[in-house]
């Protein structure tokens, strides 16, 4: 097999990898939806929502649940690969509502403290910390539902082999 055949085989296997495509589509949908949820909430378009973390729905949750659901739907829910994906998804979603959410709240408090410093203080001109890092439980739940719906929706679009 020459390099061209290997590249074609790899491309074909990646482009037909249902769990991987489900994860990417789940992520892209969640990030796109954030653009609209921000507009409804703040009445302004914020293109940074397409790549930023935090917000409604959780793209982290959508990604990992789409991956886990697609693996379960493709390979069965009783296998070790699904078990791994499910545990991975639970850890990611727990982290989003725990550590990352609290880190964002701490950044908010620290930014307020720095904002109130006198102008001559050495930290007064420091760049603000990112505040939108984690997710609230509803954002994680909606992201998880979006991921599952994405995997099921893509399954119905797959060509029958």
From TrEMBL:
Domain of life: Eukaryota
InterPro entries, alphabetized: DUF212
TM regions (residue ranges): 20-40, 61-94, 140-157
Record has Transmembrane as a keyword: yes
Entry keyword set: Membrane, Transmembrane, Transmembrane helix
Pfam families listed in its UniProt record: DUF212
Protein name: Acid phosphatase/vanadium-dependent haloperoxidase-related protein
């Amino acid at each position: 097999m020459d390099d061209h055949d290997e590249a074609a085989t790899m491309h074909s296997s990646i482009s037909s990898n249902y769990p991987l495509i489900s994860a990417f589509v789940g992520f892209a949908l969640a990030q796109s939806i954030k653009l609209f949820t921000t507009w409804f909430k703040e009445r302004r378009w914020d293109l940074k929502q397409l790549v930023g973390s935090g917000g409604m729905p959780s793209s982290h949750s959508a990604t990992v649940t789409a991956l886990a659901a697609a693996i379960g739907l493709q390979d069965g829910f009783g296998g070790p690969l699904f078990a791994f994906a499910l545990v991975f998804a639970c850890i990611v979603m727990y982290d989003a509502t725990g550590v990352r959410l609290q880190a964002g709240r701490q950044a908010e408090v620290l930014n307020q403290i720095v904002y109130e410093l006198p102008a001559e203080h050495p930290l007064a001109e420091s760049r603000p910390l990112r505040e939108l890092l984690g997710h609230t439980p509803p954002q994680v739940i909606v992201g998880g539902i979006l991921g599952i719906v994405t995997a099921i929706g893509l399954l119905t679009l797959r060509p029958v082999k």
